[in-house]
Design brief:
Helix content: 10-25%
Oligomer: single chain
CATH architecture of the largest domain: Alpha-Beta Complex
Distance between the termini: 43 Å
Shape: globular
Radius of gyration: 18 Å
Number of strands: 19
Order of helices and strands: EEEHHHEEEHEEEEEEEHHEEEHEHEE
CATH class of the largest domain: Alpha Beta
Number of domains: 2
CATH topology of the largest domain: Fumarylacetoacetate hydrolase, domain 2
Largest sheet: 12 strands, mixed
Mean pLDDT: 97
Structural class: alpha+beta
Strand content: 25-35%
């Protein structure tokens, strides 16, 4: 059975419908409260999720304080220029190998976290994010999905002024301000998707649809990314991969973020997260 893993006020929880179940209680102590430990043991989460039918929920999602379902990854990878339409709007050449940069893990934030806007060059980038469950080195593309604990939504918020303040650009720093990596609202197991290589991604700002696409349009698919990254370094449980953003970013359209804006990110089967922009 598929599972939906949430982080409720720092505690791992499984979601069913509009309710959540504290994982430590639901698993009768087999799991502790740590969401990162739950990701590392994702195989057993299927069994716990299947047992929820006879249990009393801990609470409702409406009243839950949701935090990032992956609060403390060791490595956080960003993939640039991974949709052909985004390559075109950026005026760049189509890459022949994945364009990889680091988002420092301190940027990770929850699905409702505020996004600080320190200048007039802050951009949104809606992305499908995959989370490693079983680590490894030299993972073959054909085996990649079995190493993934689940899928969540992400925003690769980018400070374009900081990103392009140096030559070559500071991709890592420009995308790693505190709070510039919202994730959520939940982590959904791979078996919940009809086709994990065809997941919809959408971004709205103040209700206006800015981005709308699917991972079937990725230049480098999720299995290819996992194979490529793991050929260079050992992936660890809980590592996150922002898989790239489609066209419609603010830098190309001239619609950069301002205080008071509200970013809504919708990922098929995962759900949506809403991040308000504030001056800062």
């Amino acid at each position: 059975m598929s599972f939906r893993l949430a982080n409720v006020a720092g505690r791992a929880a499984l979601v069913e419908g509009d309710h959540y179940f504290d994982l430590e209680a639901a698993s009768e102590g087999a799991f502790g409260p740590d969401p990162m430990a739950a990701i590392g043991g994702f195989g057993a989460l299927h069994e716990v999720a299947a047992s929820l039918g006879g249990r009393t929920p801990t609470g409702t999602l409406r009243d839950a304080a949701l935090e990032s379902p992956v609060p403390a990854p060791i490595s956080c990878f960003g993939i640039g220029l991974n949709y052909a339409d985004h390559v075109a709007e950026s005026g760049m050449e189509r890459p022949t190998v994945p364009v990889v940069f680091a988002k420092f893990p301190t940027c990770i934030a929850g699905p409702g976290a505020e996004v600080a806007i320190p200048n007039g060059a802050i951009d949104y980038e809606a992305e499908v994010v995959v989370v490693i469950g079983t680590g490894g080195h030299h993972i073959a593309a054909k085996d990649a999905w079995s190493h993934i604990a689940g899928v969540t939504g992400g925003q690769d918020i980018s400070d374009r002024a900081l990103q392009f303040a140096a030559s070559p650009p500071h991709f890592d720093l420009g995308k790693s301000r505190d709070g510039y990596g919202p994730l959520g609202p939940v982590l959904v197991s791979v078996d919940a998707f009809d086709d994990p290589d065809d997941i919809s991604v959408e971004c709205r700002v103040n209700g206006d649809t800015r981005q709308s696409s699917s991972t079937r349009h990725l230049i480098f698919s999720v299995p290819v990314l996992v194979e490529y990254l793991s050929s260079i370094l050992t992936l660890q449980p809980g590592d996150v991969i922002f898989t790239g953003t489609p066209d419609g970013v603010g830098m190309a359209s001239g619609k950069l973020l301002q205080p008071g804006d509200v970013i809504e990110t919708r990922i098929g089967t995962v759900g949506s997260m809403t991040n308000p922009c504030v001056a800062g």
